[in-house]
Amino acid sequence: MRLTVLGSATPYPRPDDPCSGHLVRHGTTTVWLDAGPGTLAELQRHTAIDALDAIWISHLHADHSSDLLTAFYALLYADLRPAAPIPLFGPPGTADRLRHYLTNTEPGPVERAFDVHELHDGHECAVGGLRLRSRLVEHGFPAFGVRVDAGAVSLAYSGDTAPCPALDDLAAGADTLLCEADGDAPPAGVPRVHMTPEDAGAVARKAGVRRLILTHVAPPLRAGAAVERAAAAFGGAVEHAAPGRTFGVGPDTS
């Protein structure tokens, strides 16, 4: 299994750094995890949109999902010829959210481009040789993390979340944890909806993962500082999800 970072910026894309989006590949199977603004263009460096086996969306904040809108136009109104609608796994309300935007031009078009499946806590599905298991995490409204397994090799992705048992479950024993490290914890009394670098390191240590990759590092925190802070809590290998990087998942971690 290989993980390619399409973008990791938040809450808006930067030059050469789109928002959250990742490509998971195993054999001939390709899955787009989160579709933040700017990731659709980067995706095409690695695969055609109509060649995707599935799209998985953690939650419906724009920095994780807005490129679904332009993907819709690419699939239906340009030079692509998908054999069938692309399977799209997303939180409850995904199809309606897209439909409300797209019906300004054509009534009810969403299902022509996407075969929408709503996630729920514990949702499982097979995509080619991959097994995806989703858990409801803590982000203040419906949001999910996912574990992607290919035989004995596994990748856990936090999506956006505060520390929670569901994330611990997804990460347990994973080869790689791709985890948000948004910044510092909020003041006392303010609900937590994100991870600090220390949180990410603690989850990785408890889960016994081989490697921790930090994504969704929000300004003014810099990636290098986030890696240092997470590494102090983890005690293992920590890297940053720099746009364009590809990581091996499992024994091949190059």
TrEMBL record:
It holds the Pfam family Lactamase_B_2. Residues 30-216 form the Metallo-beta-lactamase domain. InterPro entries: Metallo-B-lactamas (IPR001279), RibonucZ/Hydroxyglut_hydro (IPR036866). It comes from Nocardiopsis mangrovi. This is MBL fold metallo-hydrolase.
